[in-house]
Amino acid sequence: MPRISRYKRLFRLASSPHAAEQMVDDELRFHIDARAEDLIARGMSSGDAHRLALTEFGDVVRYRDDVLTIDHQYARELRMREFAESVWSDVRHAARAMARTPGFLLVTVLTLALGIGSATAIFSVVNGVLLQPLPYPRSDRVVQLFQVDNDGRRMSVSVPNFHDWNAQTRSFSAMALAHPPNTITVTSLREPARAVAADVSGDFFSVFGLHPEIGRVFSADEMRRAPSPLVVVSDAFWRKYLDASPSAIGRTISIEKKLYSVIGVMPPQMDYPAGNELWIPEELSPDELKPGRTSHGWRVVGRLKDGVTAAGAKRDLSSVSRRLKQQYGDATWMADGDLVSLREQLVGKTRTPLLVLFAAAGFLLLIACASVVNLLVARMTLRRSEIGVRLALGATRLQLSQQFLIEAGVLSGLGGLLGVGLAVGGVRLLLAMQTGSLPRANEIRVDWAVLAFAVGVSALAAIVLGLLAVWQGTRGDIRETLSSSQRTQAGSGSGARVRRTLVVSQMALTVVLLIGAGLLARSFLRLLAVDPGFRTQHLVVLDLALPYDDGPDAHQRRVAFHEQVMARLRVIPGVARVGVATGVPLVGDGADGGYLILSRIDQPVTADDWATLRHDPSRSGNADYRVVDGDYFQTMNIPLLRGRLFDSRDQSGSLRVALVSASLAKSKWPNEDAIGKIIEYGNMDNDMRPFAVVGVVGDVRGESLAAEPQPTFYAYEPQSSYAGNPFYVVMQTTGDPASVIASARAVAHELRPDVPPVLRTIESYIAASVADRRFVLALVGVFGGAALVLAMLGIYSVTSYLATQRRREIGVRVALGAQRGDVIGLVVRQGGSLAMIGIVVGAASALLLTRLLKGLVYGVSTTDPLSFVGVIFVLVAVALLASWFPARRATSVNPVDVLRGD
Amino acid sequence: MRMGESIDLLQGTLDLLVLRTVALGPGHGYAIARLIKERSKQVFLVEEGALYPALHRLERKGWIESEWGVSENNRKAKYYQITPRGRSALRAEVAEWQRYTKAVAGVLQPV
């Protein structure tokens, strides 16, 4: 018997379900009839034979059903295999077809990769920072708690308030103090290291719920019973300074000249406070840092108990806080309590800029897809004769549609793959660029969620492109395309309409994107143009984190050391002037605190006075507190507005004098001279002697260029024993800062080899302060630039296409006497008018959309006319340029050729 | 147990018997049924209809293939024959069966 061919089998399956049943019936009937015939041959009667045959067969109905089920499943399997093979064959076919037009393939894949890649890269950032939960167990239960003052503002917390909260609230399974981290020096390592350390209370690690990689952590009980100098280190610190060795546990390191024993290493996910490397029990820190209920400065974190909602916990906290206010009255500045999820606290501020970036990337993706659609539509019109032939040869529309969908799928797949590659590189670049302006930067990576996003976007692109290709490829009567010429049928309406719409949309999107970029750029330039109130060039800052010295004569030692350092630095060639301060604007924050205004220098201040005066805004205030030397203001070029600077009259034993910033003077003494006023600032240095104001200096923007200057109070170093850490030496330089930095580093090393110095120019600090804005601007700028290129190419290609369409018309015009200029004008007008529609639509949309940028612009309105007009101008120019090339080509049309040939 | 009464078979064992029988040479369902009944001395396939699910299962696995033809007395009948894949499957299944029966026999042996 011949082998049964696959073709026959398929042919059998292709027939109807009725036929399939019929075959089974035939087969079974044959068996029963054959058996009956055998029995008849042995002498049985026909009726008996058939009955016996049926009985011997068994339950016919059941066996028939079984067989039909098996056949049905088999048929399905075969159909699926067939489908898979046809898809695979279409994929191979598509690959071959595209390999034949490598230009199209390259441009399409690259354009798609650009769009998908940028969207994916930005999504990685959005995912890592905004979407992902914090890397702690049940991190949605971790919150940060705040005191709220009389004006409803959130404040940091004082230690006694924390202890009362801990004891009296019922909603938290753990609550802990954490001090904002300090930069300190660690010795007894291979070389002295500068590290970031935070004092935390015993329950700190329970709040976060992470277990140490090795070793253990300290607990609240342990510290209560027997406070001992233990320290828990971060994974990064352990790897960098402790050789990542398990023997680090038990090792002793010296922090601030005190010895601590390393008891544990936390995994890299433990990143609170951000960037912290050493966690020290706060029970060990000197009580001067946490004197009373009014001294605040601590952060409090907590973990909600199971079953407690955030709203419930907030109510609990609030009622306890208000009870405390009633109990302590003016001895506490807390009027209420508030809490916020820790994630929100950490990333809330970045939400707007990141979403803006994501929108910008989205625009670029849409523009890129529009470009690809444009190319695809163009290709489809070229293939219409091929399609007509295939249809004539018997291909069905369904088969063709499947093929087009697969082609679109292959393109999107390749584009997506390349896009993911670009995104990986892009993310690395972004992380390098953001230099600390993004929270949770170490959690940004291309992970499964990001890959899923890329796959989703590619799939969406594939569907859209595929459907469009199907629509363009199979619409209308294709058979007619076999008869008509390439040129005439290429002019069919809907293909051109689609392409025109695409170009208009591209222009509109590009306009919005570029206007956004323009607004951000203007904001950035405005910001940089802000006068921060001090010298912005030729200034080098030395940052030394000296160990805290609280021994006897600490103040004298400090002043002597500062003088020694400054004397050595002054003689460095290239250094014009040197000054010292406990805080330098944009470089490092110093302390801030409350002060009182007294009427007489000898007026004693008691605790009651504090409380009463505190409430009177004309007798008290809050300001940044700085201790500086005599040359600080000249070195920093901070102008003296009234009175005098510190000089040799001011000794450690004589009347304490102070300088105040203009804003402080204006807010407290708007109609009087600030000179001669008396200020009590004793709680900063534990010396209750009041200060007399002898001069008013210019304001400085300490926190950022965009923020308003804070009122600042300056004490003179010989007269104030306040010890800030780190302390800063500022050097006014002439000439090359690099050599000054090198020499200063040598001096620092010679005087204090145990404290690693940080030396940077003021320009680098200023740049760092605007790094986040620069980051957003750079990205939006890149996207805008790419969009502009794509839009320009879009105009160029559509104008070429439309001009080619009108060759006959142009030929006729030329034959009738049209000049070169007329032809160019004709074509340019066509391309230009498309662009203009897009520009107008885009500008109108931008008017509505840019209000979303409100939080990001500085110094310009969101409808800044200069930006709008500038962008419109640029785009009109670009559009005209893009139309010009096809216009020039159109002038080379030979009217004879056109009119004769077809 | 009465003589001649059939034993209930597991589906798999029947499939094996059918496959073995088809391997002997192509045939239609009725012929295959007769062969099995003969060779097993009427023990197996007492209900002849049970053959057909087995045949269709084997065809779905690709171990046998079918074609419509004409029988000895000029009727339309579906003929089955074994495929090369079926032959290797048969070898494997027979080896497995022999391992199984040896094991059973080993345990059932009188002490």
Describe the structure.
- The complex is a heterodimer of chains A (902) and B (111).
- Chain A has 902 residues and is of the alpha+beta class.
- Chain A has four domains: 92 residues, no CATH class; 211 residues, no CATH class; 309 residues, no CATH class; 209 residues, no CATH class.
- Chain A has 29 helices and 23 strands.
- Chain A has a six-stranded mixed barrel with strand order 4-5-10-7-9-8. Chain A has a six-stranded mixed beta barrel with strand order 15-16-21-18-20-19.
- Chain A is globular.
- Chain B is α+β, with helices and mostly antiparallel strands and 111 residues long.
- Chain B has one domain: Arc Repressor Mutant, subunit A (Orthogonal Bundle).
- Chain B starts with 10 loop residues before the first helix and ends with a helix.
- Classes of the chains: A alpha+beta (902), B alpha+beta (111).
- Chains A and B meet through helix 2 and helix 4 of A and helix 2, helix 3, strand 2 and strand 3 of B.
Determine the fraction of residues in helical runs of chain A and give it as a percent range: 40-55%
CATH superfamily of chain B: Winged helix-like DNA-binding domain superfamily/Winged helix DNA-binding domain
- N-end to C-end Cα span of chain A: 61 Å
* CATH architectural designation of chain B: Orthogonal Bundle
How would the blueprint of this fold be written?
The complex is a heterodimer of chains A (902) and B (111).
Chain A: H1 6-14, H2 17-41, H3 46-57, H4 60-100, H5 102-131, E1 142-148, E2 154-155, H6 159-168, E3 172-178, E4 182-187, E5 193-200, H7 204-208, E6 214-215, H8 220-225, E7 230-234, H9 235-241, E8 252-255, E9 258-266, E10 278-281, E11 299-304, H10 310-328, E12 336-341, H11 342-347, H12 351-382, H13 384-392, H14 397-434, H15 448-474, H16 479-483, H17 486-490, H18 493-529, E13 539-544, H19 554-570, E14 575-581, E15 591-598, H20 607-614, E16 620-628, H21 632-636, E17 640-643, E18 657-661, H22 662-668, E19 678-680, E20 691-697, E21 712-716, E22 727-733, H23 737-751, E23 758-761, H24 762-769, H25 771-805, H26 807-815, H27 820-849, H28 865-890, H29 895-900
Parallel strand pairs in A: 5-10, 7-9, 16-21, 18-20
Antiparallel strand pairs in A: 1-2, 1-11, 1-12, 3-11, 4-5, 4-8, 6-9, 7-10, 8-9, 13-22, 13-23, 14-22, 15-16, 15-19, 17-20, 18-21, 19-20
Helix pairs in contact in A: 2-3, 2-4, 4-14, 5-12, 5-14, 5-15, 6-10, 12-15, 12-18, 12-25, 14-15, 18-25, 18-27, 18-28, 25-27, 25-28, 27-28
Chain B: H1 11-24, E1 27-28, H2 29-39, H3 51-61, E2 64-70, E3 76-82, H4 84-108
Antiparallel strand pairs in B: 1-3, 2-3
